[in-house]
Amino acid sequence: MGQLLFFYTSIGYMKLRITYFLLATLTFFSSAQVSSEERAQEPRDVLTIVASDNTQPFSFSLPDGSPSGLYIEFWKLWSQTNNIPIRIVLTSFEEALLLTKQKNTLNAGLFRNKQREEWADFSLPIHNVQIGIIYNRSIDKKPKLRDINDLKTLVLELSFQENYIRENYPDIELSTFKDFDLGIQKLLDNEAQAIIGALPWAYSELAKKGLSGVFVISDEVIVSNNVFALIAKGQPELLEKINHGIENIPIDKLINLEKKWLPTLKPFYKEAVDFSALTLAEKKWLRSHAQFSVAMAEGNYPFEFYDKKGEASGLVADYIYHVKSKLNIDTFISHQATWMEAFELFKQNKIDIISDIVNTPERAKFINFTEPYFSTHNVITIRKDSFFVDSMESLSNKKVGILDGYEVELFSKDYPGINFQIVESDNDGLLKLSEGEIDAYIGIISLINNRIEQLQLSNLMVAAFAPYKFELSMGVRKGLESLVPILNKVFASMTEKERASIANTWLSSQVNRGIDTKTIILWALPVILFLLIITISIISRSNRRLQLEVSIRKKAEQEATHANSAKSEFLSSMSHELRTPLNAIIGFSELLKFDDNMSPAQIENIVEIEKAGEHLLTLVSEVLDLTKIELGKMEFDSKPILLSPIVESSINLIKPLTKKHHLEVFYENNVDKAVIKVDAGKFKQCLINLLSNAVNYNNVNGKIIVEVKASDDNHLVISISDTGIGISEENLKRVFEPFQCVSLEHHFKDGIGIGLTITLNMIELMGGKLNVTSKEGEGSCFSIVMPLHNLESINGNRE
After folding, report:
1. Band (18; pLDDT cuts 50, 70, 90)
2. pLDDT at 333
3. E strand or H helix at 718, and its extent?
4. Burial class for 228, CB neighbours closer than 10 Å (0-12, 13-18, 19+)
5. CB atoms within 10 A of CB 508
6. Which of 73, 128, 124, 125 is CA-nearest to residue 241?
7. pTM score, two decimals?
8. Average pLDDT in the 183-201 region?
9. Residue 611 has pLDDT above 80, yes or no
10. Residue 528: which pLDDT band, with cuts at 50, 70 and 90?
11. DSSP category for residue 417
């Protein structure tokens, strides 16, 4: 017996040596053309996955020899998710076990038993398999295994069920097989009456052989057992990497994989988490952080307030409740009198989450922000009988009401010439505006019209959009960074219907109920198209007139000058008149998106109306700027300013566009505390225009490089380069001419070609120069050259 055992052991060892010889040979030939450096790295970097062949649906070879199956695709998904290269080897069950005992080798999936525990470490469970019974035709019913006497039963050699049956069913006559075909043949010949094995495997084998109706599959489940990956003991770092990688895979991907291969069975990971977009690691983290404190203030209807029962309510509270239900977590809402009080507690780490906060660069230094979960527009409101307002620059030296919070930080920094006045609420600000205590008020479009109607302030009107959108994020304190991607997944998984439902609950009252929504849709789109046609016709006709006048300038210079002035006056007047209905169209479009009565198709139409309105409003604003320049009415409030804040703010404003187009932005300032003398608002407008062009005329996954440096002649050079489509040599000569669109490709064409003209004129009127270099197909570089001032000029100006 000892000699026989030695003989079989020697055969097993020889098989192992032969297998490794073949693997080494394959590796050698497959890497023959790979560099020596890569070959040296491969043994350390590549993890070998071994699995049993011909065990459908878990692991098997396709006719072309490539590996497939549930466990094969599981480890491919693991590899892709964690960026860890793997090599898959399919072999016999016995050889797979022998190979698993080598270093840096993983068995794709096995049950756990005492024998394997002696030499192997096990991963986290990756699946669950039920062990059942296949009876032949001699068993005409589905009895319990213990109720049958003298039952000859087969199990796979060296399998989990072999040891399990021997230990738990000692009276059963048990034999083993190495090949399923032989086991089936013994059932057909009545040499055995039952096979005990993994049910999914048994179903697959019988279906493949066309024998599904020949045998009886018992309803009895012998055992339901978890499946693990196995590695040889003594590799703790590898085991940690394997488990960490399993936890990184999104659960919804694991569930989809199981449904693909086992569509009739309940997925193993279905019970792992209610919200399947999370990974196992994120679910594990949530289990160890079961409760979070959330700060909410009162008196900020409709965003956050407390109802008559003292319960948190409003748009923000609904988002918190949605997060709570999705993640199955406990949230303790901390009731604070004001938002600033809540913010102070949050800064002291006494609160985990501040539920409604806007992301600013300063706050991002100590707060972990989620992506915005709610976004709307800010607007400028004025009295109907007051001065004309078309932009923030129109508010220079005016008293402007604004709520305390993020707006003060952003607006005060970018518009230092405006006298901002803190108000207690929207009602307070609008009442002060109506009574003449302030000149304008900045607030959220979703609320302003409703407040004006409620307070019956008929002398007020919305004049223009403010440059910053109102975007709410959730802020998470330091130490809870892992919560941010989890919250982002919750927000990203929300459907448009869910978002609209929340918004409509709290903002639907902002829509004027006397206006039929369908009527607005039918009215607004033709109006926008009509206004667009009128504007373009006016511009085109004026342009043709200008060209004609230039050709006869020598004969009638005085007449041409007068005509040009009249044209500019006319365009200026028209631009003013067009802005009011455009603002109304955009405002109504914004509000209509939250109406529950709108169908998806209508919402799509509304979005297109809003986009068209905003585009047309931009064109009208550009025409207005150009006419102001031509008439000499463009006013500049030039003062010495630090350049860095205005450049950084401009870059931050175009970041949503760069993310959308997958662009990288690089910023380098080589001049410490550089000072220039400009009108801050208009200079920023020029920077944003050049940055927007760098985005619009760039390639996907391209780059934008912003560089500030000093020249030898005491000037400052701000260059904005892109890796986009570039400009041909011929078009480069007329790039600053008005109404010239010189892009190479039609799908890049946007606007009417006056943005660069306006930018050039503004820069020159502020004492600078605008230069351009470009190469077709490689990108462009626009450089602003301004006289360099010293830092003392700012201090002197402040004094």
Report:
1. very low
2. 84
3. strand 715-722
4. buried
5. 18
6. 124
7. 0.46
8. 80
9. no
10. low
11. T
For the record, the structure tokens of 106 come out as 């993983």
Other CB atoms within a 10 A radius of the CB of residue 731 amount to 16
CA 597, 600, 604, 605 dihedral sign is negative
Distances (CA, A) of 267 to 158, 222, 251, 398: 27, 19, 11, 64
> Please, what is the Cα angle at 719 between 717 and 723, to 5 degrees?
165
**Residue burial 402-420, b: 16+ Cβ < 10 Å; e: rest:** bbeebbeebbeebbeebeb
- Specify the 3-state DSSP secondary structure of 187: helix
Residue 217 burial by Cβ neighbours in a 10 Å radius (0-12, 13-18, 19+): middle
Place of tokens 């109920």: 513
Following DSSP, what letter does each residue of 470-518 receive, concatenated? EEEEEEE-TT-TTHHHHHHHHHHH--HHHHHHHHHHHHGGGS-TTS-HH
Q: Cα–Cα distance between 162 and 232 in angstroms, integer? A: 22
Per-residue burial over 317-329, b if 16 or more Cβ lie within 10 Å, else e, is bbbbebbeebbeb
| 428-458 residue pLDDT tens | 899 999 999 999 999 888 778 778 877 888 8
Mean pLDDT score, 27-56:
59
Relative orientation angle of helices 406-414 and 643-653, to the nearest 10 degrees: 120
Contact 169, 145 (CB under 8 A): yes
Q: Report the greatest alpha carbon distance in the chain.
A: 123
Question: Does 324 or 39 have the greater pLDDT score?
Answer: 324
Residue written as token pair 């004969």: 555
pLDDT at 748 over 60: no
Query: What does DSSP assign to residue 250?
Result: B
DSSP code string of 304-373: BEE-TTS-EESHHHHHHHHHHHHHT-EEEEEEESSHHHHHHHHHTTS-SEEEEE---TTGGGT-EEPPPS
Q: Give me the residues paired with residue 59 across strands.
A: 55
Give the C-alpha separation, 556 to 544, whole Å: 16
Token pair of 473 as six digits: 């994020």
Cα–Cα distance, 760 to 60 (Å, whole number): 68
For residues 723 and 698, the answer to whether their CB atoms sit within 8 Å is yes
The backbone torsions φ and ψ at residue 783, rounded to the nearest 5 degrees and listed phi first, read -125, 125
How sure is the predictor about 15, in pLDDT bands with cuts at 50, 70 and 90? very low
What is the spatial distance between Cα 255 and Cα 253, in angstroms, rounded to a whole number?
5
Pairing of β 399-403 and β 664-669: unpaired
